[in-house]
Design a protein that fits this description.
The protein is α+β, with helices and mostly antiparallel strands. It has two helices and six strands, in the order H-E-E-E-E-H-E-E.
């Protein structure tokens, strides 16, 4: 019984750690980079889900660098963003974990 409760507890905990997903098409308005580890973007549409309406990207990870490259390309080509997966930190900032363009 203890093993089952532990497994259920781990499942619930892991489920709580999954990213939220922005379920609508958006367009990049402005891109920024701050120092060597932080970048991000504003979107043209309202973004009340995130503090200051910003999506942050962690450039200290290879995945963040790839996402930032995709953001730059999407802005340059005027592509739509059809999916953004993100996690909120304790202050309400949204950190992008996945991005899909069209």
């Amino acid at each position: 019984m203890k093993k089952l409760l532990l497994a259920v507890g781990l499942f619930v905990y892991c489920g709580a750690a999954t990213a939220d997903s922005l379920g609508r098409v958006v367009h990049i308005k402005r891109i920024f980079s701050e120092g060597s580890t932080t970048a991000g973007f504003y979107i043209k549409e309202s973004l009340p889900e995130c503090l200051w309406g910003l999506m942050y990207i962690d450039l200290s990870k290879e995945s963040g660098k790839a996402i930032f490259s995709l953001v730059l390309t999407a802005k340059t080509a005027d592509q739509s963003i059809v999916r953004i997966d993100y996690k909120k930190d304790e202050s309400g900032k949204c950190l992008v974990s996945a991005l899909h363009t069209e």
